[in-house]
Amino acid sequence: MTSVNLPKHTKAKALKPTSRRPAKELCSECGLCDTYYIHYVKEACAFINQQIDKLEEQTHTRSRQLDNPDELYFGVHQNMIAARKTEPIPGAQWTGIVSTIAIEMLNGGIVEGVVCVQNTSQDRFQPMPIIARTPEEILAARVNKPTLSPNLSILEQVEKSGMKRLLVIGVGCQIQALRAVEKQLGLEKLYVLGTPCVDNVTREGLQKFLETTSRSPETVIHYEFMQDYRVHFKHEDGSTETVPFFGLKTNKLKDVFAPSCMSCFDYVNSLADLVVGYMGAPYGWQWIVVRNDTGRTMLELVKDQLETQPVTSKGDRQAAVQQSIPAYDKGVTLPMWAAKLMGVVIEKIGPKGLEYARFSIDSHFTRNYLYVKRNYLEKLESHVPEFAKRIVGQYKLPE
Question: How far apart are CA 335 and CA 35, in angstroms?
Fold first, then answer.
């Protein structure tokens, strides 16, 4: 085969690590531009060409029904449940559902490799995307890396390996780019296991967050913003530290999140086949969203290893969201005693289950809409999906 007959993208040149990306300051560092798939970046990048509706139809055979309250918020889906493993994986961030699904798919020969993210040997939070080919490599990737991660930087390796069945684990911006180039990968079958994602940071931004928020930033293994309205930090000695949302030093942290995350409206990973997160489930459980038949097949593989219960919804989020908009906008930071008291009250009477998930989505979408409006007004109309406009439209926003 001569080079003339090769696909056009194989002739493209990846950008050097120090080069400015086409999305400029909105780049989420998904890794696409680190490969010759940069040929497709103007169409594929979520921050250059927002096309969730089109890609939902491509992936799920239809886009979400905007008059269905659950689909408006959570995207196309067949089912939602709460679940946890009956025998948790040691060292997993929660109980290890994501790792277990990946291992079952690999051991069963359903896929030949799994795109996941380990960390470098030098830094527990520095992401290192790999194509895992053994259960051990998958387990080495357990625990979220709350930093921007170039997962798609391995796409050239996938094509050159001759691999035909692949599982990719990733977040919304990565998956939107992946779906846009899916037909160019030469795969017989692509499986996508997504996690909800919000407020990632650069490695430097993460350090600032840890030093500003945790009592012992150097020993944090992982952290998560949880349904009890607290940030939970897990430390090397096994201890857990909690900090109420309302006690975060918002005035110091407003600029810590990546511009891409501040302009993202795909919190729930709309284009994955199966989504595993936590925000729509009771505390201690995982929230699982089955989006299509492929996702249902993936979940079936581990069904006998899970304890499950229906999702529930309780409370009313809207007053809390409306009050939080100006508070965040002005960088209001409460004294810790007041923050703890407010946290206790809201945990008792605040929204829970799916209503907590809507609270989180509303809070972030209103914030992000204002960010795009103030910083990228020319992109506002085309970049904000219709479902996000409807969600934001429930609230009164400052100018």
Answer: 47
